[in-house]
Amino acid sequence: MVTRLRGARTLGSAVLAGCLAFTVAGCAADDGGEKEQDASVLAGRLCGGSAVSERAATALDTITGTDRFEASGAKSTVANAAAEVVRTGTSTTTGRGDICRIYTLVDSPADELRVTWRMTSNAPEGPFADEFTVLPMGEAAGAAPDEAFIAFACGGGDMPGESPRHLDVGVRPGGMPGVPDGDEQKLRDAYATVAHSFALALAKEIGCTDTAGLPAEPVLRPA
């Protein structure tokens, strides 16, 4: 997907440059006259435009080494994920799905990031894998140099039933996992910040009134 977009921008630039060699105005590409548009977006416009806080945008730059990304698909939004969580919660207390996939437009240690949600019957309990640093957020949270998760209870709002549902938001690279590249502590903090931003956005979209300790800002000091 990244290669296709890079190629499209290169081809569009070549067509436009060739046209300008003959005339300043009235130039159109062969595909009906539309000039090639820059397909990249800033982090704050990803995944529906409400998912990535300013701190999370900086964190994505730390993880990927870039502040420009491929525009998210129309259905790859926090709003769609929240609707799916609510639909799932009407009939069961377990389920999982995607919130968003984030793609860079340059070669990066993390060309693709997957942001997912999971619904569980109970609050998660440790111990967690050794690579995770436990953080005091929500019902449980952990960060590693190449992924992070944050779990919280969600009651009220659009969530059906009187009992809160237990949600887990995770962020990790897609595709084949590689060795984390960079300062491991900075990467831990960055992944935790992105996971918190999406968890908070999901909770707000659902309208959770009981979020079991999900803070307004990420807490990065270990518990």
Question: Average pLDDT across residues?
Answer: 83
> Could you say which overall geometry the principal axes of the C-alpha atoms support?
globular
Largest sheet: 6 strands, antiparallel
The stretches of 5 or more residues where confidence is low (pLDDT under 50) are: 1-37
Strand order of the largest sheet: 3-4-8-7-6-5
Order of H and E elements: HEHEHEEEEEEH
Q: Please compute the radius of gyration using only Cα atoms.
A: 20 Å
Count of DSSP H/I helices: 4
**Helix- and strand-based class?**
alpha+beta
- Rounded to the nearest angstrom, the distance between the terminal CA atoms is 40 Å
Strand content: 15-25%
Give the helix level as a range of percent: 25-40%
Number of strands: 8
Describe the structure.
Helix content is about 30%, strand content about 20%. The protein has helices at about 1-20, 55-65, 80-90, 185-205, and strands spanning about 40, 70, 95-105, 110-120, 135, 140-145, 145-155, 165-175. A hairpin with a 2-residue loop joins strand 6 and strand 7 (about 145-155).
Topology:
Layout: H1 2-20, E1 40-42, H2 54-64, E2 68-70, H3 78-89, E3 95-103, E4 112-120, E5 133-134, E6 140-144, E7 147-154, E8 165-173, H4 184-206
Helix pairs in contact: 2-4, 3-4
Give structural attributes.
globular, 4 helices, alpha+beta, two-stranded antiparallel sheet, 22% strand, single chain, six-stranded antiparallel beta sheet, 223 residues, disordered N terminus, 29% helix
